[in-house]
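Review form for a predicted model. The reviewer records the input and the model, then writes brief findings.
Reviewer: anonymous (R2)
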Amino acid sequence: MWEYTDKVREHFLNPKNVGEMKDASAVGEVGSLACGDALKLFLKIDDNDRIVDATFQTFGCASAIASSSALTELLKGKTLEEAEKITNKEIADYLGGLPEEKMHCSVMGQEALEVAIKTYRGEPVEVHEHEGNIICHCFGVTDEQILRAVSENGLTTVEEVTHYTKAGGGCGKCVDDIQRLIDEATGKVAACEVPEAPARPRLSNIERMQLVMKVLNEEVRPRLKQDGGDVELIDIDGHVVKVALRGMCTSCPSSQLTLKNVVEKALQEQVEPELTVVEVSQ
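Model under review:
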């Protein structure tokens, strides 16, 4: 499904600096198993505030492991002042690039580093800086995190925000709020303005079913099969499309992101924006 560089494959298959550091000077932990990705970063810092060693423990996909491995390599030998300037883009560039859908893995590394440095300096660490309001409840992403990702990476679409923060990759109820934040950040609308929703096409039940089957068979399934996965249509109940993931998709930690960012996104774009895709056991 995704094209990985040789360096991503190398850091995934043979990750550097894996494991818990018993005598770590600082630890930065972000993410959660419930969200599909989690990273714990360990730093050993000398008396001159220089990072002499870095290790990690992570749970996630190939990109999460590769990004964590790359981060530890980037950190070794740097002072804290140099290290805190490392961005998610630098992590991705070190790997020769990441698929857009996996950029949130490099962001997770940057966030873990920030937490570790704050912990070492004795600064307060808040789960959501600036006391932002949670926009995406599925992944606990705040408006401040979204605005930061938009500003630092020049994001212009909801899809890009999802790639970088995971926001919008769950139930999808926050998509309109994400778009509003993008518009505010890029100056398209004032903060108090609420854009009118565009008119959406209406389909009969038969038309909807035919289009869903066409998109799944001609576009979605071939993409999933490239990565050893598959999807089976189980039922359509109004605007709810029920599917079952097959093959490698069933054991992938990022299966829910695949469900939303690949399956649901394709159906919403090519069939109806109101469609929601849910996974059922078969």
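Findings: Strands lie at 26-32, 37-45, 51-59, 134-136, 141-142, 229-237, 240-247, 276-279.
Further findings: Residues 127-131 have pLDDT under 50 and may be disordered.
Recommendation: see findings above.
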